[in-house]
Design brief:
The protein has a domain of 57 residues: Orthogonal Bundle (Multidrug-efflux Transporter Regulator, Chain: A, Domain 2), CATH 1.10.1660.10. It is globular and about 35 Å long. It is mainly α and 93 residues long. It has four helices and three strands; from the N terminus they run E-H-H-E-E-H-H. A three-stranded antiparallel beta sheet has the order 1-3-2. Strand 2 and strand 3 form a beta hairpin. The N and C termini lie far apart (42 Å). Helix content is 56%, strand content 8%.
């Protein structure tokens, strides 16, 4: 069976159960650190994809290893910065 890993299918309570991360913390990681951007229903409820779930598990593992959320944010943003530099829209450092 082929599964679209980008399809937003999980509500936050399910993601919390799958990852062991409290819904309040998931929302904080999204709102304060922009670590992921789940889809929204017409009513504004978050829906997470399998990729989002994998990223939340990864963030949790990095935090457990002692990496700060700011450090994780930098790691997440780095590939985007590199893409912009390649496209000529940012300076590579």
């Amino acid at each position: 069976m082929i599964v679209d890993k980008c399809a937003p299918i999980y509500p936050i309570r399910t993601v919390a159960h799958l990852t062991g991360v409290n819904p309040r913390r998931i929302r904080a990681w999204e709102d304060q650190y922009n670590l992921f951007a789940p889809a929204r229903t017409g009513g504004g409820h978050r829906l997470y994809s399998e990729e989002d779930v994998e990223r939340i598990r990864w963030v949790k593992a990095m935090v457990e290893r002692g990496l700060s959320l700011k450090g994780i944010q930098r790691l997440v943003e780095r590939p985007r910065s590199a893409e912009l530099a390649v496209e000529g829209r940012g300076a590579a450092r």
